[in-house]
Each structure stands twice: as structure tokens, then as C-alpha cells.
Specification:
This protein has 381 residues and is of the alpha+beta class. The protein has helices spanning 3-10, 47-59, 76-80, 83-93, 99-112, 218-224, 234-249, 255-275, 285-294, 299-313, 321-324; strands at residues 22-28, 34-41, 69-73, 120-131, 133-134, 140-141, 147-161, 165-169, 174-178, 182-184, 189-193, 195-197, 200-202, 205-210, 283-284, 318-319, 330-333, 338-341, 350-354, 357-361, 368-370, 373-375. Strands 1, 2, 3, 4, 7, 10, 11 and 14 form an 8-stranded antiparallel beta sheet that branches. A two-stranded antiparallel ribbon has the order 5-6. Helix 7 (234-249) packs antiparallel against helix 10 and helix 9 (285-294) runs antiparallel to helix 10 (299-313).
Length: 381
């Protein structure tokens, strides 16, 4: 799915647009026991309540593609004959009306998911989207629909204790302590199946959501999708890339090289943004190789970098520049100092050894403030 396709589905989550008739699910306590099952008619809900449920489900499609939202790919063999794909297809094609299959799904989630000491709620919904014809100007023509996109959406929401607060009681004309009991938090994880690729159903893929960029609950992915390769989280991708660069280059991993790599990644993302391309931005390992070669890194160390990337990322040499390095800021950390520099001015930063001590040098120019207080820097400082 690209950004435009994702946005088209996100717009569905309004009572007047979607065809979600029921919200299904179950409440699971910390002991992995089902406290109660959920089977509620959206049509019988108050509008505010329905909107809150739809908002939670929509959260499972929030964030950035390739970052919070990860592509899950099924093999041809799985699609043709596998328990995990058959279960998802049955849930989808029955519009979640098959109670036995819902219970099988719940139990599979409960058996695999590690939520620590937290209770949680599994929410499931099914929607049927009459895909409107899209003109060359991206305008949608509702009367031109000739295909229905049936999909399910799932989210796992932690149950939290509400904070005590002082509530106003009109009959007593006073504020008194009150609590609303347990409340549903924002989804921790979720998924949509199938994906909406080229504005059509792609049963070979699911779109997986994780609020946490580093801890994506791989145990859940393995149990529900059983794919050959679990996608790396955005945090893991950043760590793999950083370690590959640092370990392969060793003493050659200088500030100048990191600035060059950072600059290339930032430039790639800026060009992608300007192009308004809805696809996920990409950068190739070969692009990084060229930067390293231009910076004077030996062929031997470049090969070590490639080997480390292949080990960490697999055979795919296409990386997501959003994940491998922070592009919106340039951050330098020592045991004593934390420095953040506007990426546009990294050319000013240098390192130098003075009288045997290592320094990070940053020209200050005019207008230096410390803790909000303007200070003057004298010539002898």
C-alpha cells in the first residue's frame, strides 16, 4: 500500500462512510483469561460511543508506512494452503460472523501475546468498501464503483486504570473525588487484512501496526501470520545500520563520513517529499557504498559494510531512509554532553585534537543563549 491508498481507507472510519455493523472482541485479563466477549451492534450505539470505537480501530492504520506500519508478506504456499491464512480469509469472507473462527483467533492471540501484567481488549471489525472509480485528477466517482473491497481490521488495546479526578456534581453544586473505572487505551498493535494495493484486495499481504517503533511484539506476528521473515522494526533497522557502519569502518568511522551519509539520506528524503510520491522512500546500499568510496574508505571496509547489511537486512538491498538514520536533526552525544544541531548547519561542526585532548568544535557566531539567558562570548574564551 502507498500513502494515497492508505489515506483512502483511513477516511472510511466515520459512521456515515463505513459499513461496519458490529464490533467484536474480548476482554482478556493479566492471567490470560477471557473476562467477557464483545458483540455490539454499531447501529444501536450512541453516536459518540460509535465514533470512539471507530477512532480506536482507525489508530491501527496510523503512523508512517515503513515505520509504524509494516508490510507482512505471505508466501504463495501459505496463500494456497496454510492454517494462518485460511483463518484470516475465513474471518474476512464471513465478515466476522463465524463465532467459532473468532474464538480460534482470540485464543491464538492470547496464547502468543506478551502484554506483561496488563489486561487488554481485542477488537475486530469488518468493512466492505465499494471502490469508486478514480479519475486522472484523483477525484472519486461514487457511481463508478465496480469492485468491493472486503477487509478486516484488528487492534489490541491495553486496559488502564482511570486517574482519579475532582468531578462536578450539579445537584450538590460541588466538586468531589471520582473515577471512571477501567478505560481502553490507544492500540498497542493491530493489523489490516488484506491490503489495499493498486486500490484492490491483495490477499498476499497484511498491514501490521505497532505504536512502539522498537518493540513490535514479534511473538504476535509469528503466531498470527507465521511468515518466513518477520519485518524489522524501525528501531532495529536503525541499530543494524548504525552497527554495520561503525563495525565495518572501525577507526575510519569519522564525523565527516557520518555527516556525508546523513546528508545523502536527508537529501533523498527531501527529494521524495518534493516529488509527492505516495510510495515509501528508498535508498540503496550501493548509494551508501558510493558515499563511503568518495570519502576515502577502502574497498575492503566497504565490503565489510555490505556483508553486515546483508546479514542484518537480508538479501534486499533497499533500505528505508526514514528508519536507518535520524534525518530531521543531527545529534551528538558524549558521556557528559548532548548536542543537537540543525541539519542545515552540520558543515560547521568539526572535531580536533588540541594539546592531546579531543574536542567538538562548533562556531557560535552571534546570539548565544544558555538556559534562555543571552550571553556574550569574549575573544579570550
Amino acid at each position: 500500500m502507498n500513502q494515497k491508498e492508505l489515506q483512502e481507507i483511513r477516511k472510511r472510519f466515520k459512521p456515515e462512510k463505513d459499513s461496519i455493523s458490529h464490533i467484536f472482541g474480548c476482554y482478556v485479563n493479566a492471567a490470560k483469561e477471557i473476562v467477557t466477549h464483545i458483540d455490539m451492534s454499531v447501529g444501536l450505539m450512541e453516536q459518540e460511543e460509535a465514533e470512539m470505537y471507530l477512532k480506536l480501530l482507525k489508530k491501527a492504520l496510523s503512523g508512517t508506512l515503513g515505520k509504524n506500519l509494516l508490510d507482512i508478506e505471505f508466501s504463495t504456499k501459505q496463500v494456497e494452503d496454510s492454517d494462518e491464512h485460511r483463518l484470516l480469509q475465513t474471518l474476512r469472507l464471513s465478515h466476522l460472523r463465524d463465532e467459532n473462527m473468532r474464538n480460534v483467533f482470540y485464543q491464538r492471540v492470547i496464547d502468543s501475546l506478551d502484554m506483561g501484567e496488563e489486561s487488554y481488549v481485542i477488537l475486530l471489525a469488518s468493512d466492505s468498501y465499494d471502490i469508486p472509480f478514480k479519475g486522472n485528477d484523483d477525484e472519486l466517482w461514487e457511481e463508478g464503483s465496480n469492485e468491493v473491497f472486503d477487509y478486516i481490521i484488528c487492534c489490541i488495546c491495553p486496559v488502564k486504570d482511570a486517574k482519579a479526578a475532582l468531578r462536578y456534581y450539579a445537584d450538590e453544586k460541588s466538586f468531589r473525588g471520582a473515577s471512571t473505572g477501567h478505560v481502553l487505551g490507544s492500540p498497542e498493535i493491530g493489523f489490516m487484512f488484506p491490503t489495499f494495493d493498486d486500490r484492490s484486495a491483495n490477499i498476499y499481504n497484511a498491514l501490521y501496526y505497532s505504536r512502539n517503533l522498537s518493540y513490535i511484539h514479534e511473538e504476535f506476528i509469528e503466531a498470527i501470520f507465521n511468515v518466513e521473515r518477520v519485518p524489522l522494526s524501525a528501531g532495529a533497522q536503525k541499530n543494524v545500520f548504525g552497527e554495520a557502519l561503525c563495525d565495518a569502518l572501525g577507526s575510519d568511522c569519522s564525523l565527516e563520513i557520518v555527516k556525508a551519509v546523513h546528508g545523502q539520506i536527508r537529501e533523498r528524503l527531501m527529494l521524495h517529499k518534493e516529488s509527492k510520491d505516495p510510495e515509501i522512500p528508498e535508498i540503496y546500499v550501493e548509494d551508501i557504498d558510493n558515499i563511503l568510496k568518495t570519502s576515502g574508505v577502502s574497498e575492503e571496509k566497504i565490503n565489510l559494510f555490505n556483508d553486515a547489511c546483508q546479514k542484518g537486512f537480508g538479501d534486499d538491498n533497499v533500505l528505508n531512509p526514514n528508519n536507518v538514520m535520524e534525518s530531521r536533526k543531527f545529534e551528538m552525544i558524549t558521556p557528559e554532553v548532548h548536542i543537537t544541531v540543525n541539519p542545515e548547519y552540520t558543515y560547521n561542526i568539526t572535531t580536533k585534537v588540541i594539546d592531546g585532548s579531543k574536542y567538538i568544535l562548533i562556531p557560535v557566531g552571534e546570539g548565544v543563549a544558555v538556559n534562555g539567558i543571552d550571553i556574550k562570548v569574549g575573544e579570550d574564551e
